[in-house]
Write a structure and sequence with these properties.
11 helices; Jelly Rolls; 12 strands; alpha+beta; five-stranded antiparallel beta sheet
Length: 325
């Protein structure tokens, strides 16, 4: 079995060779559970690395030996478990799958969970707050849900949609390991939104057929509410989800409303508002006290090359030309 690199190494939560300590520390992060080793000849070498992104956390967990984990019901969270090597047997309710590098698992939080992680089975685990995921689904389908979201237990990582979602997770892990832009609150919030939305779109669940199938009528007033939110605080890390919440409509309806009444997408509108604010500040006398990069970053632009291109497309000149006026 080929060894795999330890992920999130700079964000270590604990390391231990003691079973009781491993059980206690993992329970603090997830939930109370039973943890036993299945082979007395193997020595436990538990490593748990973790980074919090708000309602989403990334976890690298390796027990270093074969263990049986019985948490019962997870209740308040969803957990996508991605083996980086080896295999695990996952039983949830009446379902059972063999999980490996090509098959992740997503247990139903309201059914009893029982697992055996074989030796050499480190896993990358994506924790998602259940209430946040369900609210995100309601935004997507434009109505309240009354039955909990239930994903298929096995997530086939060889499908194109799952590969795309996994690439998003891998990008995030790599950026966190290099202390990149995802450590900035605004970027972090948008990544969290992408992770949750991507999971709802890529993995089959009991509401999959409802996503994108119905669009409630939207009034110009609802669009104006979203526009007002953009104008009021364009420097904030607003997402389309946030704008739909302010407007009181689903994301799909908001997108269609902006296309109908504004002639552009909600994100394009927000970007234009931010560009206008940058230009106002560059033209003001106080702009000489700040660099162009500082001003751009203050209004939500984190990639300076792309910012300069967008600015030129909108105003016909570069930011450096505006500041000299």
């Amino acid at each position: 079995m080929v060894p795999v690199a330890e992920l999130l190494k700079e964000h270590n939560l604990f390391r231990t060779t003691h079973l009781d300590e491993a059980r206690s520390e993992v329970a603090r992060v997830f939930c109370p559970h039973s943890l036993t080793t299945t082979n007395r000849e193997e020595k436990l070498k538990t490593v748990h690395n973790r980074i919090t992104l708000g309602d989403v956390t990334l976890n690298y967990l390796d027990y270093g030996a074969e263990v049986r984990i019985t948490p019962g019901e997870l209740n308040s969270f969803y957990l996508v478990q991605i083996p980086l090597n080896g295999r695990a047997e996952i039983s949830c309710g009446k379902e059972m799958i063999l999980s490996d590098v090509n098959m992740a698992s997503i247990p139903n939080p309201l059914e009893k969970l029982d697992m055996v992680w074989h030796s050499g089975n480190p896993q990358l685990m994506v924790y998602i707050n259940r209430a946040t995921l369900e609210k995100r689904l309601e935004d997507l389908i434009g109505r309240e849900i009354h039955v909990p979201v239930r994903f298929e237990l096995g997530m086939d990582l060889t499908t194109q949609n799952a590969k795309s979602w996994r690439n998003l997770i891998d990008t995030l892990v790599s950026d966190v390991d290099h202390e990149g832009l995802t450590m900035h609150a605004g970027i972090r919030n948008q990544f969290q939104d992408l992770i949750i939305t991507g999971l709802l779109l890529s993995q089959k669940h009991n509401y999959s057929e409802s996503i994108g199938t119905s669009i409630e009528p939207i009034t110009s007033r609802s669009v104006r509410l979203a526009m007002a939110a953009c104008e009021a605080n364009p420097q904030d890390p607003l997402t389309v989800t946030d704008m739909a919440h302010f407007a009181g409509v689903s994301i799909r309806s908001l997108q269609d409303g902006f296309k109908k009444y504004v002639g552009m997408s909600p994100t394009d509108y927000l970007r234009n508002v931010r560009l206008n604010r940058v230009r106002e500040e560059l033209l003001a006398e106080r702009s000489f006290d700040s660099s162009i990069a500082d001003i751009a970053f203050r209004w939500g632009f984190t990639h300076l090359g792309r910012f300069a291109k967008l600015y030129h497309e909108r105003f016909g000149e570069l930011p450096s030309e505006t500041i000299r006026k």
